[in-house]
Write a structure and sequence with these properties.
This protein is α/β, with parallel strands linked by helices. It has a domain at 47-134: Nucleotidyltransferase, domain 5 (2-Layer Sandwich). Helix content is 34%, strand content 23%. It is built from three helices and seven strands; from the N terminus they run αββββαβαββ. The strands form two sheets. Strands 4-3-2-5-6 form a five-stranded mixed sheet, with helices on one face. The protein has a two-stranded parallel sheet with strand order 1-7. It starts with 15 loop residues before the first helix and ends with a strand. The relative contact order is 0.18.
């Protein structure tokens, strides 16, 4: 008399639940990455009701470092001084037709620093837009 086991282990594997989980994970990551702001500089821009639709080719950011000092950034890379801004802009905008620069300056930055960047743009023939927050 042969003894038969009543329960057999099914060796098959269903991947349908795994694909559902992968789809949900992919969807979550896509939504989460669109919410992340790539601009790491936190600047308090002045408010304005006049907004431009032109797209700038590059951005210059001036951040107040406290104690009357400023940090200059061109496309999120710190360049050190106003002379560094001019060199970085000349490298980035060389050969461009109607080069446009967007200036992002903290509210607390001294006007001398802002005017210095404006003079750099004028000297090199760049169009300059001052970035503001909508009112």
């Amino acid at each position: 008399m042969a003894i038969k086991h009543g329960s057999k282990v099914d060796k098959s594997f269903s991947a349908s639940s795994m694909t559902d989980l992968m789809f949900l994970l992919l969807l979550f990551l896509l939504i989460a990455t669109t919410l992340i702001n790539p601009n790491a500089l936190k600047l308090m821009l002045p408010k304005s009701s006049n907004q431009l639709k032109d797209k700038a080719m590059t951005t210059v950011s001036i951040q107040d470092a406290g104690g009357g000092r400023c940090r200059y950034y061109v496309e999120m890379q710190e360049v050190g001084s106003a002379a560094g801004v001019e060199r970085a802009l000349q490298e980035r905008l060389a050969g461009q037709e109607e080069p446009t620069v967007s200036l992002h300056a903290d509210k607390s930055v001294v006007w001398d620093e802002i005017v210095g960047v404006m003079n750099i743009a004028k000297r090199n023939g760049y169009k300059l837009h001052a970035a503001t927050q909508p009112e």
